[in-house]
Amino acid sequence: xxxxxxxxxxxxxxxxxxxxxxxxxxxxxxxxxxxxxxxxxxxxxxxxxxxxxxxxxxxxxxxxxxxxxxxxxxxxxxxxxxxxxxxxxxxxxxxxxxxxxxxxxxxxxxxxxxxxxxxxxxxxxxxxxxxxxxxxxxxxxxxxxxxxxxxxxxxxxxxxxxxxxxxxxxxxxxxxxxxxxxxxxxxxxxxxxxxxxxxxxxxxxxxxxxxxxxxxxxxxxxxxxxxxxxxxxxxxxxxxxxxxxxxxxxxxxxxxxxxxxxxxxxxxxxxxxxxxxxxxxxxxxxxxxxxxxxxxxxxxxxxxxxxxxxxxxxxxxxxxxxxxxxxxxxxxxxxxxxxxxxxxxxxxxxxxxxxxxxxxxxxxxxxxxxxxxxxxxxx
Length: 379
Hints:
This protein is of the alpha/beta class.
């Protein structure tokens, strides 16, 4: 029996590979002779770089950059096995994981470090990029990144504004004379699972900034700042980001790539599917295990379990999704190919306990799901 194990990471708990290993151990309790194929996945968020360099036998390059609060942080970019393609994960330089919860403040957090990572890769000679946008701590529309790459954001006195989402409202001119000319020589493939526009009820500020520390008052301030920015971008480039799909990704940095970079945007899970050869690896499989930290209605927006299930559905392979927790609206996933959804929490416990016991709980759950599946085959 061939079983494909293709999960995302359980953020704050286990990497995608560690999740896959735990699931494999549970399956092997039931079917020691099963052929288990581990395919660590991602969808454009944290873990995408790791998944892609693992799949292609690539490597990492360590870089020190400025974090979301301008402190120095240790980041990295990945080089795929072709030694030509550079993978940059936004979370490494501008991610939520780099800010203590009590210090989260999208009025001041910046994507400057993301720009520094791109600049370092350009200096090292790379011109082909995959950029994974998930997990950001920012709501500055990518302006910090653009500043790091030479674009001057000038106020009404012709002075460069500072950093963070609030500063966007002070910009009156986008001066591109010092913009890194090497950008025009590059190809940028943007990996994201978000199709939100830049502003409005479904925009970056109103949907995502509360997760990054924004109060209701901050949300309105950020929304106004992004509106001012979007108007300036339209004047400068002719591109209207206000309602453009994907422009609101990662605090609006998706729009910056659309307006100022030679880029195309794709679902992160589709990019990872391609590089991991998931579709080919599904051939001959009897069942598939996938999962992520929380499965709910948002999973259907293009996150890993949905992407895996869509590929498996084409081959009529059942898919079992394992999660740390299950939220509202997860039932929509059934029509996308997921057979059943299961939580690792098997008794009342704190979030901390679930995190600490994640691998053990996953292993136990995988065993139970596999036993049920095997019993169904005997009927």
